[in-house]
């Protein structure tokens, strides 16, 4: 298992090993013991989500769940390819408002760990792209929120994405009051 740090220290890229032969491959996409042996201690997961976007340029995000239902997510691409983005939304954090993006695809097998307190979004790069992710908290409709996708200077690689009504109506980052606070921040 390969673990890479990012420009946002709490966000990690985790690439499980694939063991292949002429039939295909096998991979352990989640193995707590192996991660802990590597010094990575993630919270417990309570829910798995799976979504499929049929069209290239479908953008979902930037989403979050506010405390006490804030979610950490371990995200991977089950089919196709997507550009996945995490944004530090913790007031008082040294990296508040900064983002990190990476390509997740079926081919590269990479996963992105996005802790609670970060916004999450992605845009599809291939048709029928599937995203699969583990969550550290159950979905709670009253805690569900979004920040406008184009308000942080993120290079999504698209200028006119396919958006939901929720994402179209989301406030810009500068007009939004984050419900998250960095540990140790006043």
Polypeptide structure, described:
The chain is built from 2 helices and 15 strands. It has 186 residues and is mainly beta. The mean pLDDT is 95.
Give a concise summary.
With 186 residues, this protein is mostly beta strands.
Strands, helices and their partners?
Blueprint: E1 2-5, E2 12-15, E3 18-21, E4 24-27, H1 32-37, E5 47-53, E6 59-65, E7 73-79, E8 81-88, E9 90-91, E10 99-105, E11 111-114, E12 118-124, E13 129-135, E14 144-146, H2 165-169, E15 180-181
Parallel strand pairs: 9-15
Antiparallel strand pairs: 1-2, 2-11, 3-4, 5-13, 6-12, 6-14, 7-11, 7-13, 8-10, 8-12
Q: Tally the helices: what do you get?
A: 2
Look at the helices and sheets and give the structural class: mainly beta
Output the radius of gyration.
16 Å
Describe the strand arrangement of the main beta sheet, using strand numbers: 1-2-11-7-13-5
- Termini gap: 37 Å
Give the key terms.
6% helix; 186 residues; 41% strand; mainly beta; five-stranded antiparallel sheet; globular; six-stranded antiparallel sheet
